[in-house]
Each structure stands twice: as C-alpha cells, then as structure tokens.
Amino acid sequence: MSLMSLTAVELGKKIKAKEVSAVEAAQAALDAIEKKEATVNSFVTVDKEKALSRAREVQAGIESGIYTNPLAGVPVAIKDNMCTDGMLTTCSSKILGNFVPNYTSEAVLNLVKAGAVILGKTNMDEFAMGSTTETSAFGATKNPWNPEHVPGGSSGGSCAAVAAEECSYALGSDTGGSIRQPSSFCGVTGIKPTYGSVSRYGLIAYGSSLDQIGPVAKDVTDCATILEVIASYDKKDSTSVERKEYDFTSALQDDVKGLKIGIPKDYFGEGLDTEVKDAVLAAAKELEKKGAVVEEFDLSLVEYAIPAYYVIACAEASSNLARFDGVKYGYRTEDFNGLHNMYKKTRSEGFGTEVKRRIMLGSFVLSSGYYDAYYLKALRTKALIKQAFDKAFEKYDVILGPAAPTTAPRIGESLSDPIKMYLGDIYTISVNLAGLPGISLPCGLDAKGLPIGLQLIGNCFEEKKIIRAAYAFEQTREFVHSPLSE
Amino acid sequence: MKQFETVIGLEVHVELATKTKIFCACSTEFGGEPNSHTCPVCTGMPGSLPVLNKQVVEYAIAVGLATNCKITQNCKFDRKNYFYPDNPQNYQISQLYLPICRDGGIEIETEEGGKKVIGIHEIHMEEDAGKLVHDEWGESSLVDFNRSGVPLIEIVSEPDMRSADEVIAYLEKLRLIIQYLGASDCKLQEGSMRADVNLSIREAGSEEFGTRTEMKNLNSFKAIRRAIEGEKERQIDLIEAGKEVIQETRRWDDAKESSYAMRSKEDAQDYRYFPEPDLVPVIISDEWLEEIRQRQPELRAEKLERYKKEFNIPEYDAGIITSNKKLADIFEETTAICNNPKKVSNWLMVETMRLLKEHDMEPEQITFAPENLAKLIQLTDARAINSTVAKEVFEKVFRDNIDPEKYVEENGLKTVSDDGALRSTIEKIVEENPQSVEDYKNGKKKAIGFLVGQTMKAMQGKADPGMVNQILTELLQ
Mutual orientation of helices A8-16 and A22-40 as an angle, nearest 10°? Predict the structure, then answer.
C-alpha cells in the first residue's frame, strides 16, 4: 500500500511512530506527482528540492521534539492564490506568471509552524474565477476519476491532487463554493470555515468579503485536524474573528442522536440531477437511522443568491485586481507607448477571458448611476439571505443538501455557457453570502462512476456540528479511492 | 459695471502626526531612502490587508471635536478606484458614505473686525499616495512608496468664504487648532497641509452658485492668495466677455502666477466608490468619545486667558504668543525653567519676532531649545551679562541654538563686576582724560557720560554700567 493512500492523520501517526520518515513521505508524494501530473495537471509549481530539504528539516524537528502536531512531516499542496515566501504564486494567471512573494500567508505559516512539508502550488481557475479549473493560464486540471471531466473549481488543483493522491492534503479557498464543489466532483472532503476563522492575510483576494481558506483532504478527520491548525485569530486581517475555541477534532464522534437536520426543499428543485438527489437523500436517511431528526423546510431566497453573489464578488474583484498593472510586479507588456497604453496592454494580455468578464461586470455595477441598482441591492439581498439562514438555524443544527446539482461535467462543456456554469454554484454560494461554514464529503458515485458530494451547512462558528454529522455519515461507507490513486 | 461676489470652499488635506502609517506599522518619517519605509501592505503586494491605526481615528475625532463637528460613531471606509502608479493598489482607502466627522464649523475674524462662522461639511480619513520620481536620464519614472499609507484627514468646508482674506483666516485658524491638538505640524511648504480651492463667482445679491473650478498645487498662503485673486479675475473676465466658466480642475503655477486646466468635468473619473471589504466598521463608543474629549488639550482661547491670569502678561502679548503653537510651547517651557514669564514674553515679542522677520522665517522654523533661552534670561537676571551682550548672545542662540553659559564663558563676555579690575581701568581712564575730569568738576555733569563710554570701550562692553557709574562718581569726588 502506498503511503499516499493513507489519510494525512494516518501518515502523520506513522511518521510520529518512526515507521516512516518525513523525507520518505515527501519522496512518495513527489514520485506520485511525477507519475500522474501528465494526466491530471493539478500543480502549477512543484519544488522538489525545497520539499525534500524541508522534509529533512522537519524530520529533525520531529526527532528533537520541535514538531509535535499530528500533521508534522505530512506533505501538503497549497492552492496557488496563497502567498509563499520565495515560491512562485501565480493565481494561475499570466499576469502573475513570474510573481515570487516576499512573505507567506498566515494560514500557510500556521501549517509551517506545525511542521508541514510543502510540495508546491496547485492549479486553479484564474484568480479563483470559475467552477472548472479550465480558466487557468497553465492548462486545465483533469478529474482523477475521469480525465475527460473537469475536477470542478476553483480549487480544482487542490482537490484533484488529493484525489489523485499526489499529496496527503491540500489547502483551497472558497468564495462561492470553490472548495466544496471541486471536493464533490473529485470525491474528497473539504470545509469552507465560518468567514473570519482562517486569516486571509496573504490570500490573493478575489471577493474579499466572501473569500475563506479551508482544508481539502480524504476524510472528515483530516479536515478537522487541518482546520485546527490553520484557523487562528490574526491581527493582520481586520475581518479575522477571535473565536471562543479553536478545537474541531473533539467533534469527531459517531453520534448524531437528536441532531436536528433541515433539508431545504429549495435545494431539490429544477436542475438537480436525479442521481445526485437520490444519493444526497439516501445520506440523510443514514443520518436519520443514527438518530438525527431530519425534516424538510423552505429556506427561501435561494434564486437570488447567484445574482447577488456575482454582483458583490465581481465588484470587489474589479477593485482587488486593479493592482495588477505591470508597474510593481508580475507581467508587463513588452512594447508600449506611455503609461495608459502600458496599463491597457498589460492587463489585456495578462488576464484571461473569464477574469476580464468579471472585472467588467464588477466595474459596471459600481459605476455611478448603477451602484444603488446593483451593488446596494445585492448587499441588501445578502443581508436577507443571512436572515433566512438565521431563521433556519433557530430550528435546525445542520442544513443538508447537495454540494452541486450535477457530477463533474466534461471538459469544455461549461466555458461555452457561462450562465449555466454560474448556476452550478447555486447550493454553495449562499453559504458564502451568509458567512457560514460548510462541508462537502463524498456520498456516492453516479452511473458514470463520478463522485457525488453531500453538503452540510452549519450556523456561524458551529463547525463542530457539521463535522460531527459529516463524521457520523462517513462511518456508514468506505472511502473510495479514485482510479488515478493507483 | 456689474458687481461680483466670490464664493469659495476649501478642501484641506492634513497629514497626521502618527508615528506609523494608517494601515500598517511602517514609519511615517519624512525623508528616508526611497522605499525604505515600506511593507507588503503599503506597496500593495497581493494578499496584503490593511489594519487601521487607532491613533488616526483619535486625531480625526480630536479635530472634529475642536471644529464643532458631529462624530459619526459608526463610520466606515470606502475604496476610491483610480489608476495611477503612485497608488500601489490602484485604489485609495478613503471615506465617502460615512465620514468620521460632519456638520461642524469654526469662527474666523473678518477684515472688518467682525466674526463669521465657516461651516465644515465633513472630515474624512484616508491614506496618502506614494511619490513619483522622474528619472532625469532615462525615459522612465520611479516610484517611492515611503509616503504611501501616511494618514491624512481631508477637511471639506462649506462654500462660506467670500474673499482671499477669509480663506487665509480660515486656514490659519484651522492650522492653529490642529497644531494645538498635536494632530499635525501643518506645514504647507512640506505638504503636511494642502489646500484645494473651489471657487465660483456670481452677481452680487444672487442666491444661485456659479460654475466652480477647483485649484490645486497651492503651497503657501501667498500662493493661495494669488491663486484666488487670479482665478476670480479669470472667471469675471470670462463672464464679462459673454463666455462660460467650465467646471474643471486647474493647476496653479505660482512662478507664472497663472493656472492651467488639468481636466474638465467631462473627463472626470468615475471613482466607483464602494465599502472597503477588508476593514470592519469603526465603532466609536460613547466612552471612547468621552475619553478623547477629556484628553483634548487647551486650545488657544483658553490658553490666552490663562496667560493673562497666571503669568500676568498683557493681552496683546498673550495674543501674539498664543497665535502660534510653537511660540506658546517655547513660552511655557522656558517659563517653567526660569520662572520669569515677563522676560520670556519680552524675548519672544521683541528679539524673536525681529529675527524671524529678518530671516523671513515662520515660528515653526525656530530651532533653539527653551533651556537656552532660559539660561540667557538667568544670566541677565544675575547681571552676569549686560543687555547689549545678551542681545548678541541671543542672536547666536536663535541661529545656532548655542548654550549661552558656555558661549559667554568661552568668549569672555561676562560682565566684569570685580571691583578691583574695574577700578584700575577707571583710574586709568580718569588719568588719561584730565579735560573731562575738569569739566565734570566744573559742574558739567554730562562729562561723566564720556568717561563711562570710554570705560565701556576699554572693557569691551563687558562692564556693568551701574558699577562703572558708581566708581566714577566716587573717584571724581
């Protein structure tokens, strides 16, 4: 059995028990990457030398007692929108194609302090804009279950790398479903934490008020363990929240007796694939069998989430991405005539189609005369959606539904119809708008052999409830490794 | 001939005197090596995030309270989007929708001696931009981000001013308040206080406003005055020629004493303001507000009253000294050391003022330490030096901040009050001037003046004139 087929926590235990060294673990991951990258293309950057020398350093640190975290020595992949000091950080965009940050993002720093060994940076939709990882300037990532299909996005590289077993776990970021949807498509587990729980310092912003970093791994135990490491109160991030507790692993209990689970009817309407629907409802049944109280309810406002999201996220993105101008770092056009021409050519050449579309959309909704009609209205919608969830959480501990309406589409299918692609985010987006935590975990395969994801949504700061429910459900089925895990 | 009225409103930017920048911990110190006071935040590195400097909020509130504004207890920052290389994020974090202070005003004295309130529309907090340095040899420009993120407040007045005099009075009052609060040094030349003038004209008696222009690049009160006069005439000429004033931003060239259009309203940018998502709202509790209110320092009016009462100095003198924070500070610090407010006030009112005028300096440019003025006063009090020497020494203090004790010692300027040495010099003078002695003895009492002068000359001015007189009278008996 390959070291890479172990969960992160299992591998960490073996390293701690000196059955395996951190160097062997890193080498196993690098070998897997070497073997599978041609098929899956989950990485933008792999730094073998750095990974191995870091593994040696961590191994020494484990032996001398510096590193005691369960994840010490376990190889990890980082989504390429988190700054890593001295390591290329591109956001899968040509405009940052040569950008090497001089500082490390807080979440990654937390991992480093716990003894993580970073393998490299994973592919993503350019600037996290997309749901398929096809908008990357460095080529699409393929779904390890079937390379003809997309891995989802925007954290497609991270989720595919975990599913293909090129790394033990990964970090992703989720602005409208970018961890949960690709986790669902790749048959892995991912958590989008409560907004403010993981520092955004060093995360290259897409939609600042919605972005949140989270773990991607094989199972719930790994995710809870990783979250415990990366979540922290960070004074460098003004939106960071000082939580009462940073313990998540104590919720890993196979016990949902009396847990109240609400199923929003709105999540099971038109557009939902029957196989997905059946698998998700079957999962609800399993939890009910274990003693949870499951009931349907009307969440309402679901149809307004997508327009509100695209207005808010694009507005923020249009401003966040203004700094990529060829002046200070990153790509600069070769020939230009004066400052404005330099700006124009740099940005025209440096950004891809989807990014340009969203910058234009965002600039438009913020323009004078349209601000009230679009941006303000979207903010009001966001507040109403939050209220609808607040109301639901008065009755339920956890909300259960699908992570995405379908399984992974074929490569090329989505980009031709962006509206359809945007609609695919319907079950994940409102969670970001309301700042809530959500988890996606595998709950079956469809007839094509592609994974189906179950989404559990909790109230703010109640990750433990969704972790508990997810863990309990996970005990009812065996983890299925992707065909590419061999 | 139509009569025209000028309508002026000001936008004043003030650099706050915080040690660190508004959204990061970098130093705000002026004049460092280019890009030496920078970090990922103030250079707009991807992934960096702003964290608000609390001191900026406190200064803004202090200025707001001192200018009778309402404080917005739930205020927010917004992003102002525009592309320019000195602006590393290509947006400026500022305040549009909920500025920290609103609806205030300050009272100025008009030329006619009356009083007039100039309304303050709002005060908001924002970050400064970096500086472009144009490469003299190449075709490129370089960016220095040391100033990027230095905290500013922008004080927007109502269009309540009607003349250059009122504008200057308003600016002086504003500057004095801010200096007293310690919120900024407000140096126009160095750019820590910058004023943009919005000006329009209308027929006298009209209620409607004319089309206004905005004038930038005004680096001194003189430039502001000239620019107002120039723009007023330009607009009147246009209207009298049957042309229209175009709403535009103009740049004042003080050397040429004229302005030129930078951009018109048509190409005015759409800044696409929206709430800054990287910062949370600034909640100003009643307690915090009260704390700042309690900490407000003594402002000019209170200080003036106290000087009259506590130090018993004339209203006129107290008025002059308190008209400038630097002078008031020197006065208080010096008095605290030498405990002679009357003399301190005299040195400031007479010699300091004379030297300032002579060197065309502002009181802010004074460099001498209060201790040195105090020492000088103590030397004169002890009759160690006479007033002529003291004036000479003060010039040195003023220019080079020398230690008067040392200087007097080193240059042998101490008054000779040693009776023996003085007596022998006088005896010699008396001997050398028999004619004067005889004149004196013959009743020409004035002749003693000549002898005193001769003695002082021989003593190189270091003699105590009282003692010289006394010894001479004695010898001539």
Answer: 150
* Closest alpha carbon within chain A to B23: A236
Chain-centroid distance, C-alpha A339? 37
Return the domain boundaries, chain A.
Answer: 3-261+396-485
Residue B293 included in any domain: no
Do B331 and B183 belong together in one domain? no
Task: Give me the interface pTM, i.e. the ipTM.
Answer: 0.96
Q: How far is C-alpha B266 from the geometric centre of its chain's CA atoms?
A: 38
Pick the residue from chain B with its C-alpha nearest to A236: B51
Record the tokens describing residue A90, joined without a space: 């591109």
Residues B271 and B337 in one domain: no
A327–B47 C-beta distance less than 8 A: no
Cβ atoms within 10 Å of B174's Cβ, excluding its own: 25
Which of B81, B143, B277 lies at the smallest CB-CB distance from A208?
B277
- Which residue(s) pair with A243 in the sheet? none
| CATH number for B458 | 1.10.10.410
The range of the structural domain enclosing residue B452 comes to: 419-476
End-to-end CA distance of chain A: 9
CB contact under 8 A, B278 and A329: no
Give the span between the Cα atoms of A152 and A275, in whole angstroms: 18
Angle at B58 between CA B53 and CA B59, to 5 degrees: 100
Question: Residue A472 gets which letter from DSSP?
Answer: H
Q: Where are the alpha helices (DSSP H) in A1-87?
A: 8-16, 22-40, 48-63
User: Does B440 lie in the same domain as B394?
Assistant: no
Same domain, B382 and B442: no
**CA R_g for chain B:** 30
Whether B292 is covered by a domain: the verdict is no
- Cβ contacts (< 8 Å) between B96 and chain A: which residues? none
Determine contact, residues A72/A61, Cβ cutoff 8 Å. Answer: yes
Q: Which of B287, B319, B344 is the last residue of a domain?
A: B287
Please judge whether B47 and A366 are an interchain contact, meaning their C-beta atoms are less than 8 angstroms apart: no
Distance in Å, alpha carbon of A210 to nearest chain B alpha carbon: 9
CA torsion angle A248 A253 A257 A259 (round to 10) = 20
Whether residue A154 lies in the annotated active site: yes
Same domain, B250 and B314: no
Residue B31 lies in a domain: yes
Q: Any catalytic annotation for residue A79?
A: yes
> What residues does A190 pair with on adjacent strands?
A216, A440
| Domain membership flag for residue B302 | yes
**Among all chains, which residue has been given the structure tokens 């930038």?**
B216
Residue that has been written with the tokens 């359809």 in this structure: A420
Catalytic member of A155, A158, A178, A318: A178
Identify from A96, A200, A237, A327 which residue to disrupt to test chain B contact, counting B C-beta atoms within 10 A and taking the largest count: A327
* Contact present, A71 and A226 (Cβ < 8 Å): yes
Task: Provide, as residue numbers in chain B, all residues whose Cβ is less than 8 Å from the Cβ of A239.
Answer: 277-280
How would you write the pLDDT of chain A (486 residues) with one tens digit per residue? 689 999 999 999 999 999 999 999 999 999 999 999 999 999 999 999 999 999 999 999 999 999 999 999 999 999 999 999 999 999 999 999 999 999 999 999 999 999 999 999 999 999 999 999 999 999 999 999 999 999 999 999 999 999 999 999 999 999 999 999 999 999 999 999 999 999 999 999 999 999 999 999 999 999 999 999 999 999 999 999 999 999 999 999 999 999 999 999 999 988 899 999 999 999 999 999 999 999 999 999 988 999 999 999 999 999 999 999 999 999 999 999 999 999 999 999 999 999 999 999 999 999 999 999 999 999 999 999 999 999 999 999 999 999 999 999 999 998 888 777 888 899 999 999 999 999 999 999 999 999 999 999 999 999 999 999 999 999 999 999 999 987
Indicate whether B181 and B275 sit together in one domain. Answer: yes
**CATH code of the domain occupying A3-261+396-485:** 3.90.1300.10
Count of structural domains within chain B: 3
Is residue B216 within 8 Å of residue B187, measured between CB atoms? no
